[in-house]
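Design request, tokens follow.
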């Protein structure tokens, strides 16, 4: 396999001809060849080769070629020689999301800004990159009516073949479990299109994946899915406090911090629409009745987790969001870290529940002083170890993970949650914007790796 960088141009000739500059002919070992197969995404077509005298590496596509394989635009792109007579233009990268049809400049709601950033950076890396929704797929024609970004930064719709890789950023946990989306994912996989970040994790998924792995199970607090009332009571007596949270929840919604103090009773701390709530109960039975009254049958989808006494700043617990990525060499790396400080009286450190965002350096300096770098390195090594373990036990492609990590008051590192589609709120911090850009670049580099559009030097 060889990989060459070139400039693609369009000509108006109707024939199925590619005009190749001398330098590109030499680079591709095309001298003497009269025909090749040209490919974009899943589309492939035979083409006549005609050399032209022009300095630099240039490829001119006649209209017959451009229209047949639906090349979306001219410009700098890669040519990959996958077989002796086949040359692939690309990569063609599809980003799966969802949004409101006909919503003008914000077709993907609050995600539009991030998706535009992804498309801008992808174009800089010489990729054909577009966003699409499940509604945009035509399975009969094997095409997608995707959203590309034009020169002025607006979306433009173009029909392209099925891509070389799909990055899944569907935003809805509920939609992903629908029969249509399950079928969509499986149909792309049957066509051998790499599809990474398969779906959201449930909390119980991660605990089951890691519970029998001796290398990483020690980092996961004791946890049980769908606990009985007896298990909840036993956990409270064993650990004094626990977290009781919905398996498929996010943003801290529906989470309880339950505490047992032998001489004072049972306490439940949670958040409702009015703010943080703290209730006291004389016995466990009355505590459990309250939760049953609030949630009914949905309590069957809850997880109970051992409470961990985290390090604190101003008497408020601190944990850390590690934004992990596969890089262009298929290795897990830490790209961004945000420290989250819980709000007064809050069950969690989530920003929407009154938490605040700090840089990890500031948080660790306040907690550990001169030893902050040592603790940072310990957390980073643990995060990479956990990411590798999740990938090993997970049966689908992963390229990105968000890990919620904490340090207890004995300096033990813990992992509380793993997210297959982590939010990007930590990158809103002024001092973490460079990490936000690096996150986007790692997504694209992993796409290049999966499509084999990377040179041996990683470029």
């Amino acid at each position: 396999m060889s990989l060459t960088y070139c400039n693609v141009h369009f000509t108006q000739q109707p024939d199925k001809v590619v005009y190749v500059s001398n330098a590109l002919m030499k680079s591709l070992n095309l001298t003497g060849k009269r025909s090749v197969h040209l490919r974009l995404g899943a589309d492939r077509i035979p083409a006549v080769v005609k050399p032209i005298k022009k300095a630099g590496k240039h490829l001119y596509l006649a209209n017959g070629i451009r229209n047949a394989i639906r090349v979306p635009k001219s410009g700098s792109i890669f040519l990959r020689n996958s077989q002796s007579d086949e040359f692939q233009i690309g990569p063609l990268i599809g980003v799966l999301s969802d949004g409101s049809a006909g919503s003008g400049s914000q077709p993907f709601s609050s995600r539009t800004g991030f998706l535009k950033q992804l498309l801008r950076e992808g174009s800089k890396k010489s990729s054909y990159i577009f966003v699409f929704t499940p509604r945009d797929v035509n399975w009969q024609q094997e095409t997608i009516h995707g959203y590309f970004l034009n020169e002025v930064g607006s979306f433009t719709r173009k029909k392209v073949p099925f891509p070389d890789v799909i990055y899944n950023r569907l935003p809805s946990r509920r939609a992903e479990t629908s029969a249509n989306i399950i079928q969509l994912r499986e149909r792309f996989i049957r066509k051998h299109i790499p599809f990474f970040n398969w779906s959201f994790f449930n909390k119980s998924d991660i605990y089951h994946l890691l519970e029998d792995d001796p290398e990483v199970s020690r980092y996961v607090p004791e946890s049980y899915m769908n606990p009985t009332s007896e298990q909840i009571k036993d956990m409270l007596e064993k650990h004094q406090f626990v977290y009781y949270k919905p398996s498929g929840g996010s943003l801290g919604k529906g989470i309880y911090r339950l505490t047992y103090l032998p001489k004072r009773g049972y306490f439940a701390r949670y958040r409702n629409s009015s703010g943080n709530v703290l209730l006291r109960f004389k016995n466990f039975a009355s505590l459990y009745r309250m939760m049953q009254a609030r949630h009914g049958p949905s309590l069957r989808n809850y997880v109970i987790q051992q409470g961990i006494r985290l390090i604190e700043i101003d008497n408020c617990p601190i944990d850390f969001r590690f934004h992990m990525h596969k890089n262009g060499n298929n290795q897990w790396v830490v790209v961004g870290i945000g420290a989250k400080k819980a709000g007064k009286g809050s069950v969690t450190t989530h920003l929407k529940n009154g938490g605040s965002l700090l840089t990890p350096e500031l948080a660790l300096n306040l907690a550990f002083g001169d030893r902050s770098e040592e603790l940072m390195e310990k957390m980073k090594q643990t995060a990479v170890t956990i990411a590798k373990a999740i990938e090993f036990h997970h049966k689908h492609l992963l390229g990105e993970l968000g890990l919620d990590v904490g340090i207890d008051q004995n300096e033990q590192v813990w992992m509380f949650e793993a997210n297959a589609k982590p939010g990007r709120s930590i990158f809103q911090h002024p001092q973490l914007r460079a990490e936000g850009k690096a996150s986007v670049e790692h997504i694209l580099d992993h796409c290049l790796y999966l499509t084999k559009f990377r040179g041996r030097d990683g470029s």
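Comment from the thread starter after seeing the answer: thanks! The two ends are 15 Å apart (CA to CA).
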